Amino acid sequence: MKPNIHPEYRTVVFHDTSVDEYFKIGSTIKTDREIELDGV
């Protein structure tokens, strides 16, 4: 892979509003929001 061209991969929290559940998933989405889930 070429260096410095790939987005940063991180763990994010997805909120499924249809069932009001939160899931930890891997994503390259950029965000400045933070949430505490399961004490982490």
UniProtKB/TrEMBL annotation:
GO terms for cellular component: ribonucleoprotein complex; ribosome. SUPFAM superfamilies: L28p-like (SSF143800). One of its GO terms (biological process) is translation. It comes from the Bacteria. Pfam families: Ribosomal_L31. Keywords: Ribonucleoprotein, Ribosomal protein. This is 50S ribosomal protein L31.
